[in-house]
Every structure is written in structure tokens, then in C-alpha cells.
Amino acid sequence: MTNAEPSGVWGTAVGVARVRAMESRREQPLFQDPLAAAFAAAGGLSLQPRVPAPGSAPWDEAKLRRWGGVALSIVIRTRFLDDLLTAAADAGCRQVVLLGAGMDSRAYRLDWPSGTRLFELDTAEPLAFKESVLRAERAVPRCERRVVAVDLRDDWPAALAAAVHDPALPTVWIAEGLLIYLPQEDVQRLLERVGGLSAPGSRMGLTLGSPQTLERFAQDQGTAADMWVSVMPDDPVGWLAGLGWDAETFSTRERAAAYGRSIPEPDESQPQPQPKTQPQTQPPTPGGLVSAVRR
């Protein structure tokens, strides 16, 4: 039994776990997440393909493609951030902070160097849900894992300090699938606080949403898209430079190609909707992938 049923923004983390579990079952997965299926099951999500609820209108092909793109973006961003974390560890970072950790199980599934301390920050409800699953699975972390129950709109730097994070040492920060749910002013404040706790040589991995993403999903009422409020700036590299980071950005499509995972082209035999802006010739792959180093 879990402490609470998934709901709201944190409930989407269980949906992310479902996607990771399904990827882990592929013949040639881009990563292995052994705990993902347990998180999904505890949240009441089946690993069988989704179908419309009884009595509801059937999903149209466009909607299926949109949400197929979301699932693919989750897979690609997971591998992207796995690689970023491995590179940061190889560069000497021994502190890891997961902002809005959700059902992230990297403390358990990645090979961490000796002396690595990993902090998971999230609100109390999802962390309680997560801990109940971890206990049931008798999961053992591969690093020193510290759980910090705090709302990222509150004084989380003080809570992180109480958990013995050392800002004088390099840290790798991960904000995966988080910033799109925060108003832009909260995103700015969050990253300003991150910068204030980052020694030179610290790393950061972010996922950002584009205005086109919000536009494409605006019609999907009653889904996680209802909670998406923030988009990346026009110049994310310049924005992060102003915050003290040297950043690179990557599209989901180019990272997918680098990992040998193709993104199918749309079915030209079906009528395509006429967009208000530039024609959509590719299936949606929401979000931007960012790798940054602290100057």
C-alpha cells in the first residue's frame, strides 16, 4: 500500500516511470530502470498500451502522435541526462542534486564513484509514495542518498544545506521535466538560487518546453498539458550565460539520431491539419535539452 494516490504535477512522475519501464523492456533499450515498473504499478498504471477510457471519445491519430512524441522525448531526455551525469562524475563532481526528483531512480541504477552524495528534492507527498515503493522493493542505493522534503517555491537552499550539501564543491544539478510546470519568474528565481550554490566547474542538465509544444497540446484538456505554463526563452544559451553558465542546447530529434533511435515521419496518406504557423512536417518532440557548466 502506498501513502497516497498520485495526483497533480507529481502524479505525472508516475507516468514518466511507466514510460521508462516500457523502454527498459525493449530489446535494445537506451537505459535500464529496474524500479520504474514498480513505481508505475504502485500508481495504478499498466504497462499495456493505453486505450481511451470506457465511454470516452476515441483518441484521434493526431492526439496519439502528440503523446507518442511525449513518450519518446522522455526516453531521449532520460538517456541524455544519464550521459550528462556520467560525464560530470568523470569530471570529479561528487554532489548531485535532483530538483523535483519524482520517481527518479538514478541513485539506484547508475554506477556512481565512491564518495558520491545524491540529494533528492521534492515535496513530502511524492517522496512518501516513493519511499514506500523503495521499501517494498528492498532497493539499495549505489551512492549516499539524501532525501530532502521541501517545496521548491520555499527556502529549499536552507533545507539542502541542512542535508549537508557543500556549495564550495562542484555539484551537478538536474531539473528534468520540472521547469515547464513553473511560472517563468519561479524558473528564474530557482536557477538564480542554483547558481548561488554552484562552485566553478559545476554542471547542470535541464529540460525546457517550447512555445510550439504548448500550442500543440493546448487542445488536450484533462491531461498533464493543462499544467504546462513555462517555455524556454528565445535564446536559452544567452539566458544561461547571464546566469553564469556556459550552455549547449540539443533537440530531441538530434539526440534521438545520435542514440540510433529514429523518429517516424508523419503518414502522408492521411490528411494533415493546416497549422496557423509554419507547416508541421515532423511528429512533436517536446522540450529542449540543455547541458551547462558553471564558469
* Sheet/helix structural class: alpha/beta
**Which ranges are low-confidence, i.e. pLDDT below 50, for 5 or more consecutive residues?**
266-286
Q: How many E-type strands? A: 7
Query: What level of helicity do the residues show?
Result: 25-40%
Order of helices and strands: HHHEHEHEHEHEHHEHE
Strand order of the largest sheet: 3-2-1-4-5-7-6
Write the layout of secondary structure elements.
Layout: H1 8-24, H2 36-42, H3 61-90, E1 95-99, H4 106-109, E2 117-122, H5 124-137, E3 144-149, H6 156-162, E4 171-175, H7 184-196, E5 203-208, H8 211-217, H9 236-242, E6 245-251, H10 252-258, E7 288-294
Parallel strand pairs: 1-2, 1-4, 2-3, 4-5
Antiparallel strand pairs: 5-7, 6-7
Describe what you observe in this structure:
There is one protein chain. This protein is an alpha/beta fold and 295 residues long. Helix content is 38%, strand content 14%. Helix 1 crosses helix 2 and helix 1 (8-24) crosses helix 3 (61-90). The radius of gyration is 19 Å and the shape is globular. It starts with 7 loop residues before the first helix and ends with a strand. Mean pLDDT is 86; it is low at 266-286.
Q: Can you summarize this structure?
A:
With 295 residues, the protein is of the alpha/beta class. The termini are far apart. The protein is 38% helix and 14% strand.
